[in-house]
Specification:
Elements (H helix, E strand, L loop, with lengths): L2 H14 L5 H11 L4 E8 L3 E8 L10 E3 L3 H9 L3 E3 L21 E9 L2 E10 L7 H21 L4 H9 L2 E4 L1 E4 L2 E9 L13 H25 L8 H12 L2 H11 L4 H18 L3 H22 L11 E4 L4 H9 L4 E4 L7 H9 L3 E3 L4 H4 L5 E5 L4 E4 L3 H22 L15 E6 L6 H6 L4 E5 H8 L5 H15 L4 E4 L27 H6 L1 H15 L4 E5 L5 H16 L8 E7 L8 H7 L3 E3 L1 H8 L18 H17 L3 E3 L7 H10 L3 E4 L1 H12 L3 H14 L7 H10 L5
Parallel strand pairs: 9-10, 10-11, 11-12, 15-16, 15-22, 16-17, 17-18, 18-19, 19-20, 20-21
Antiparallel strand pairs: 1-2, 1-6, 2-3, 4-5, 5-6, 7-14, 8-12, 9-13, 13-14
Helix pairs in contact: 1-2, 1-4, 6-7, 6-10, 7-10, 7-16, 8-9, 9-10, 11-12, 17-19, 19-20, 21-23, 24-25, 24-26, 26-27
The chain binds phosphoenolpyruvate and magnesium ion (MG).
């Protein structure tokens, strides 16, 4: 029998008749690993690690030898949450000498943290006189023992009662970032790391492997079923889910589970162990897209544990708020199908998978709500206000009442907006407008009909690639773009070429060390420096058009020369493709202020200009669009921006070039009205904004507003913002903003 099997078999015998006393555990481990020392340190309140049992060090040091987390090799393993394997521990810079232990003679050390549900409970360490590096099998054995130990210690750990008492009744507010706007009121459904398996060890690995096999098949079947059925219209954001399915089919992590089972663990414990490793990896990975992939795996692990448990699908009260540390796409679909009304995720980014799916489902979602998991219990009443960016646990009656009124008001508004869908977008005085959709995933195409938008003013092509985790090949891209054109059924579609880089990184893409990635090697700059990818995309767009009209625009253009170079690539591809698009329009986004000073040349060359206010604002005001501390500091409705936009409108009009806006500002009714007042009547926005903007515009007397806007602008050219006087006039005149 191999060492791990022998050790685990012995532990199993002991656990069958009760728990394993720590002195017995360290004795067994030392014996099986042929170590002179084996010690267990346990975390005590105040981040202190205390020697709780030892074989080989002085017995009188037990309960006395103490280290801070982060201090010494043991403390370092606890702080880092990873194993340290050191042939010459005493000369390691972190080594901390504790004379009471008598550990001078021991040169080598292997210290493994004891972790459970993301928390470090202690450290188990072995030491030898001989300088040696412990081999991978030995590390594996000690890690398995650490997992068992975590369960033993968890049973023994008394929670901090003072904090628990505080947490269970008082309201708590957690700030986060808005992933998808909206409000939800309901009880919390908290999905944490899967509960520890009841049975850790098993004596028949073959039977456990067979159970694993059945559970894997069932997991794969539910993933396929989810992907096929859980999204509205059966039209899944395939780009996300295909990546997820690939991971479900991947055998690498499952092989690790099988290996763990072969050492004597139960199937649940094997899965649990691999899940623990993944969680630890997740904590260390900083690349957001890689973290997203690992979150997918963790999602599958949870699903696998449920399949092993044979558990019935959970019921949730309608409108419940799902709270999770991390969330994969299938998990979100699973809970959505059970009727949740909102979701808060401790670790999620706006570009992450959960956010992409939540957006596609129109589910209010809050990210980065750190600390909520610790304080929430299943069934706690809660309010999720994704727009304001917070989650309130156990709200008081006043807060609850206010939100209940707000939600009632919203449903009335939704019903009113729905009646506007098939009406043309026009102001009260009859000025026609073009309200377009911003989209990036196939799933969102249904919104064209749902909102009655006039077309797609911005199709962000990089979103599908980010969701898929790679740049698709020409045929795959062409299929996506053709679906977009099919769904638009003759309505205009503006395809924006890849806008990758900055915060939109593909996994594995080299991340250059840049101080200001938003101003770095991103977007069209990459496309022009490495034209193969851009040409491939342009070819795919031309193929997708299949003779239909095609409109392409380039992002982050900073000079007329860059626009020319990009257009030359498009023309070169177009020259080789048959059938040629019936009409090929080529435009630029206006996001970089330098372009404002080249309008003479630019406007004679482009077919249209679309203003990306998100980036144009950040570069004009030198104010990062993602920094919360300056989020409200600069306003689109400021004299500077209104002057800039007016100048642009005049110049575009003089050359007869169409001008539109596709930044977030276009979707906010007050801003949209002001932009119309400046003469910009083509606005492209997120789906949720189309009907509210249409409603506001329908109540607007544009000529009267235009005159007032001029007066307001002339009245105070030095004001930081003209929002208040504009809003006051608009409200006085009954325009719903
Ligand atoms: C913008 O910058 O306004 C824009 C629409 O592009 P993105 O938000 O994708 O950068
Ligand atoms: Mg932009």
């Amino acid at each position: 029998m191999s060492t791990p099997r022998r050790l685990l078999a012995r532990l199993r015998q002991l656990m069958a008749v009760g728990t394993v006393p720590l002195p017995e555990l360290v004795r067994l481990v030392a014996e099986q690993l042929v170590a002179e020392v084996c010690s267990v340190y346990v975390v005590r309140p105040g981040e202190i690690l205390e020697l709780a049992a030892t074989e080989g060090l002085r017995p009188e040091a037990v309960g006395r030898a103490r280290l801070r987390v982060g201090e010494g090799i043991v403390g370092l393993a606890a702080a880092k949450g990873e194993a340290l394997n050191l042939p010459d521990a005493q000369n390691h810079p972190a080594f901390a000498y504790r004379p009471e232990t008598g550990e001078e003679p021991y040169a080598s050390m292997l210290a493994v943290p004891v972790r459970r549900a993301g928390r470090t409970l202690g450290v188990i360490a072995v030491q030898n006189r001989q300088p040696r590096r412990y081999d991978p099998d030995e590390v594996e054995v000690l890690e398995t023992v650490a997992m068992l130990l975590a369960e033993l210690l968890a049973g023994a750990i008394v929670p901090d009662s003072a904090e628990e008492g505080l947490g269970s009744a008082t309201p708590r507010r957690f700030a986060g970032i808005c992933l998808v706007g909206g409000i939800a009121i309901g009880p919390i459904v908290r999905i944490g790391p899967a509960a520890a398996p009841r049975r850790l060890l098993a004596d028949d690995p073959a039977a456990e492997l067979a159970r694993l096999d059945t559970a894997v098949k069932s997991m794969r079947a539910t993933v396929d079923e989810l992907i096929a059925a859980r999204l509205p219209d059966g039209d899944a954001p395939r780009e996300v889910l295909d990546a997820y399915r690939l991971i479900a089919a991947d055998t690498g992590w499952l092989r690790r589970v099988s290996d763990a089972i072969r050492t004597g663990l139960s199937a649940e414990a094997g899965v649990h162990r691999v899940a623990g490793e993944l969680r630890d990896k997740l904590r260390r990975v900083s690349d957001p897209y890689l973290r997203e992939r690992l979150a997918d795996i963790e999602d599958l692990v949870g699903r696998l544990l449920r399949a092993l448990d044979g558990e019935a699908p959970e019921r949730v009260p309608p409108g419940a708020i799902l709270l999770a540390r991390r969330l994969g796409p299938a998990e979100l679909l699973y809970w959505h199908a059970r009727g949740i009304g909102g979701v808060a995720v401790e670790e999620a980014t706006a570009a992450g998978h959960a956010a992409i799916i939540a957006r596609a489902l129109g589910l209010p979602a809050l990210g980065a709500a750190r600390g909520a998991m610790e304080q929430a219990e299943n069934g706690d009443p809660a309010v999720l206000d994704a727009e304001e960016g917070h989650l309130v646990l156990r709200p008081g009656p006043e807060v609850l009442g206010t939100y209940q009124r707000e939600v009632r008001g919203r449903s009335a508004r939704q019903a009113r907006w729905a009646t506007l869908r098939d009406r043309p977008a026009v102001t009260a005085d009859g000025t026609p407008l073009s309200l377009m959709l911003n989209a990036g995933l196939a799933l969102e195409l249904g919104q064209l009909d749902a909102t009655g938008a006039d077309g797609i003013g911005l199709f962000r092509t990089e979103i599908a690639m980010l969701a898929r985790g790679m740049v698709m090949d020409t045929a795959e891209q062409a299929a996506v773009y053709a679906r977009v054109l099919d769904a638009a059924a003759g309505r205009p579609v503006v395809f924006r070429t890849l806008d990758l880089g900055g915060d939109k990184l593909l996994p594995g893409s080299p991340t250059p060390e840049e101080e200001n990635p938003a101003m770095g090697w991103r977007s069209l700059r990459v496309g022009l420096d490495r034209p193969a990818v851009l040409r491939r995309q342009l070819r795919a767009l031309l193929l997708a058009s299949g003779g239909r009209p095609l409109t392409v625009m380039f992002p982050m253009v900073a000079t007329t020369a860059e626009f020319r170079a990009a257009r030359a690539l498009l023309r070169a591809e177009a020259a080789r493709i048959r059938p040629r698009p019936e009409r090929l329009l080529v435009g630029t986004m206006l996001e970089v202020p330098a372009l404002l000073f080249q309008l003479d040349t630019l406007l004679t060359e482009v077919d249209f200009v679309s203003i990306g206010t998100n980036d144009l604002m950040q570069f004009t005001f030198a104010a990062d669009r993602g920094t919360p501390a300056i989020a409200g500091r600069y306003d689109l409705l400021s004299p500077a921006m209104l002057n800039l936009l007016e100048m642009l409108v005049e110049r575009a009009r003089a050359t007869g070039r169409p001008i539109s806006i596709c930044g977030e500002a276009a979707g906010r009714p007050l801003e949209a009205i002001t932009l119309a007042g400046l003469g910009i009547t083509t606005l492209s926005m997120a789906a949720g904004s189309v009907l509210p903007v249409k409603e506001a515009m329908a109540g607007l007397d544009l000529p009267a507003f235009r005159a007032v806007l001029r007066l307001i602008r002339e009245s105070d050219g030095a004001a930081p913002s003209l929002r208040e006087p504009i809003a006051a006039w608009v409200r006085e005149h009954g325009v719903p903003v």
